[in-house]
Amino acid sequence: MATIYLQSSAGGIFAGDTLNARFNVGPGSQAHVTSQASTVVHTMKNSGAKTNMLIRVGDQALFEYLPDPLILFPKANLAARLRLEIDESSTVLLCDSYLTHDPYQSGGYFSQLANEIKITDKHGSLLCLDRSVIGGADFFRNEIGIMGTRRVIGTFYYINRSTDSNRVCELLNNALERCSDIYAGVSTLPNQIGAWARIIATDATPLREAVDQMWRASRADITGCQPAASRK
What we know:
Helix 2 (165-176) packs across helix 3. The protein is of the alpha/beta class. The relative contact order is 0.14. It is built from three helices and 14 strands.
């Protein structure tokens, strides 16, 4: 399987940035895409930043997009949008995660994160939409039902329109049972396109372990083989 590491030559995401990326995954192909490390979303005083990603996955193709978490610095303001187009027999493993960091211990927090993941078929018909907008003040309020005392959040998707979504739920739940120091929930996705898990944790280490366990279980389920460890 081809493996691609995305790197930021600028050292992260800065105010005024608009970053666009596109992946076209041909029929029958397989690819694993990740980042070299976490991407820093830097302090932004006068304007925000945007990221836009379009992923098209063809018939019988397997695509894994599993970047490390974004790191939101104080006053970071990011609008992140990902659109995924899948075929009837496409398989996609996808992770989206972020955490906060105050390098100067000044008590600051990010301004806003607007996050959207939209999944459609190849004709553009909507299959699933996950959209959220949260401000740093709400994120750090320690309220039950938002984040409590946890500061790291991630979502993992196993997407395949031709598989049993309930079976995938069980697979992800079993993988998460091997993890500790997380709070997680698993459910089926709309329109029987697979399942997803949302995880919150106190720091990045247990989140990464949870994503790794779900990725390994999912890859083995799809291909019959465990993946090799990522070289990073």
